[in-house]
Amino acid sequence: MSVAPRRDRHRYSVLPGIDGRTRSAKAYRSLFAAFEREVGHELSAFDRSLLHSAVTLTFKAAGMQMAVVRGEAVDADDLIRLSSEARRIIDSLKVRSAKRNAQGDDDELDRYLAGKAAAIA
């Protein structure tokens, strides 16, 4: 009996002990996936941790925004801090991604030049 391959569940996993079937867990995974695509590179464990922080902060800020729409009192400073910190984390991940991509371009250029030098010699 063959078993269908499992999706890479840990890739977008919610924190341990959280039921991943809930609406909020699915929204969290969806937001994580969207942010991961925006960052644009394979995440290291450190980058994944930063991204989880950004998603958590964004998720909390979204909850506060919904509270505002419902007419509930929300501390505007807290909402601004959450949103700003999430943005800073995402920006830092984008910078790290750009550096990795630039380094990859340098490696490609080095290989090309080494090949040219070998052809001349």
Observed structural traits:
single chain
Q: Could you outline the blueprint of secondary structure elements for this entry?
A:
Blueprint: H1 23-39, H2 45-69, H3 76-120
Could you characterize the architecture of this molecule?
The chain is mainly alpha-helical and 121 residues long. It has helices at residues 23-39, 45-69, 76-120. Helix 1 packs across helix 2 and helix 2 (45-69) runs antiparallel to helix 3 (76-120). The longest helix is centred in the last third of the chain and has 45 residues, at 76-120.
N-to-C span:
58 Å
Beta-strand residue percentage: under 5%
Which oligomeric form is depicted? single chain
Number of helices: 3
- The sequence of SSEs as H and E is HHH
Compact description:
By secondary structure, this protein is mainly α. The protein has 3 helices and no strands. The chain has one domain (9-120).
